[in-house]
Fold this sequence. Notes:
Number of helices: 12
Radius of gyration: 48 Å
Structural class: alpha+beta
CATH topology of the largest domain: Heat Shock Protein 90
Shape: rod-shaped
CATH architecture of the largest domain: 2-Layer Sandwich
Order of helices and strands: HHEEHEEHHHHEHEEHEEHHEEH
Largest sheet: 7 strands, mixed
Number of domains: 3
Helix content: 55-70%
Strand content: 15-25%
Amino acid sequence: MRRRLLITYLSLTAVLLLALEVPLALSLAMNEFHHLAIAQVNDTEKLAAAASRTATPASDASWAARATSYGTHTHRTVLLLDAQGEIALSTRPGTAIERAEWRRTVRRALDGNPNLPLEYPFNLSAEPLLVAAPVFEHGWVIGAVVTISPTTSLRARALGQNALLLGVAAAGLLAAAAAAVPLSRWSLGPVRQLHRAVGAIAQGRYDTRASAESGPAEIRELAAAVNTMTDRLVALLEAQRSFVADASHQLRNPLSALRLRMDVLESAVTEAGRPHLEQAVEQAVEEAERLGRILDELLALAHASEADSGATPVEMRSVAEARARAWSPQAAATDVTIVVKGEQVVACCQPGILDQVLDVLLDNALGFSPAGGRITVRTWVDDTRARVTVTDEGPGMTAQDAERATDRFWRGEQIGNRSGSGLGLAIATTLLEVGGGRLSLSSAEPHGLVAEVDLARDIPGVAALTRSDAGGRS
Length: 474
């Protein structure tokens, strides 16, 4: 947008300068030519008048000296023609009147007509200027005085003036560019404010609103529309969260009552019927516990989308080691080893997010790792991103399943009878997206699954900016 404004400002300035300077350049050039032509006409008429006062100007030494002095001083050629147009005297021997337009000019002078070359077709080709004036004796034309002036100096002055005008135009463009930068910044101020507000909303700060009280009318209308859209979005999200939370809480009461009744039923059954009923009661209790876990995960998912947006530096290697220690007892029970590798990496995310995500990924990895298998947690960085991967040695999944694995309630074919609600990866994905991170799944070689967590890197000097911009297989 700023580039377009700068191009527009400079284009308008360039057009304005061209509209002013092209006519000015032509006017200055024609003015130089008119000065030259008028001065040469006056000088030629003076020489013709002096020749008229001499009975035989061609043989008059004083007139010849005057003509020679004039030619030397002005770098012009002076010719004295007789009544037939033949050259009787020349200050530059060898000069001939060969051009057709020159001969017409001389013929008009020999006919007694004045010569005013103000309609001379000026150009920059340095074509000499010829002026002719009749010489009279007792009212009769007895010859003509011709002066030929080179226009090389005239062309040089015109080119110099044009160069000066070009320099002025360039300086004007530079001044316009210098003024256009702050002007465009000022013009785009309301747009930047709107962009910051929209960015904050996109990062989950739903209490942010765009300023609709200042700036151009179009920007105010757009800001008002953004605020209206945000209000409706917040209302929809709040309704969704309220529904999930209320449903979870409301379902918990009958679920607790169901478990209590099962306990009462189990205690009331006689010894004869107990063997047949114990299995059914145990299965019912397991389903009730599974429903309870689903309700807990639904609540976690509802709260994940409204996570705190304040990003802080988090040392990923330390978090990975802490979560590996926490899951080590369960891993040892299934004969699985958890190994943490990689360098010290500082990421920028909300507190506790990485802990929860690693818990989900380690839980999944343990559920699919074979006995004697190994789970590798590795941290690493590139220029701007911090990453941690969790790699297991399980069956893995296809590319199509990897794309769907983060959907809510999705359970792949490899799940089998493994307990789970299909919400773990969805919760992890939502937690990461709130802080501007992402979760990706891919196959490991020769088998297994690689879950990669990608977060913004906490870089000194830009960390504050990153934190201000953030919050954004079960």
